[in-house]
Amino acid sequence: MAASARFVLSLTAVLTAVAAISTPPPASATRSSIWSRAVTGICGHALLFEGRHEIGTRAGAVAVARDIRASTARRLRRIRALQVPPPNGRLSGRWLRLERRLAAVYADSYVRIYDAIAAANTPRQRAQLPPVLGSLLHVPDALRDTAANLEQRLDVPDCTGGGAPNAQSSAVNP
């Protein structure tokens, strides 16, 4: 991606987050909806990882894994720094911890998938690869389902960039 395109994407993300945080809420807005809008400004359209990485090497896979963790961690720090407190501190704290864990599982799975593919050198090993990759792809499922439930309860989107859209997003974008 060209530097100018990256700049435009970065600027768009920043402006979206600023708009969500700085737009005055309607008089009827609750603390819950204000927090939810601010989080949506930060996490809406999140990417699993944000940098450019070498593909096809273990070092590249490890770099992607590091970026997955770092990208989510940056967004979660911005949420913790919001001036509006979350509506349910306990529930939102659980969600934030879960998002960090989920990013770690995505990162670990990414490297494990690379390792499985790299280790398949014989025709027999390559034939056994689909079920192995299938199971690795589904490692995050239980955490993702729990996160999706909390996202729905908190009215916020996935913040890792790796999850399926929540009910609110899919209702708007079928």
Describe the overall structure.
With 174 residues, the chain is mainly alpha-helical. The protein has one domain (3-162). Helix content is 70%, strand content 0%. The chain has 7 helices and no strands. The longest helix is centred in the middle third of the chain and has 31 residues, at 89-119. The relative contact order is 0.13.
Keywords:
single chain; 174 residues; mainly alpha; 7 helices
Unreliable spans? 2-22, 165-174
The geometry reads as elongated
Total count of strands: 0
Compressed to H and E, one letter per element, the order equals: HHHHHHH
The residue-averaged pLDDT reads 81
Q: How many domains make up the coordinates?
A: 1
What fraction of the residues are assigned to beta strands by DSSP?
A: under 5%
Largest sheet: none
The separation of the N and C termini measures 28 Å
How much helicity do the residues have?
over 70%
Number of helices: 7
Coarse structural class: mainly alpha
| Gyration radius, in Å | 18 Å
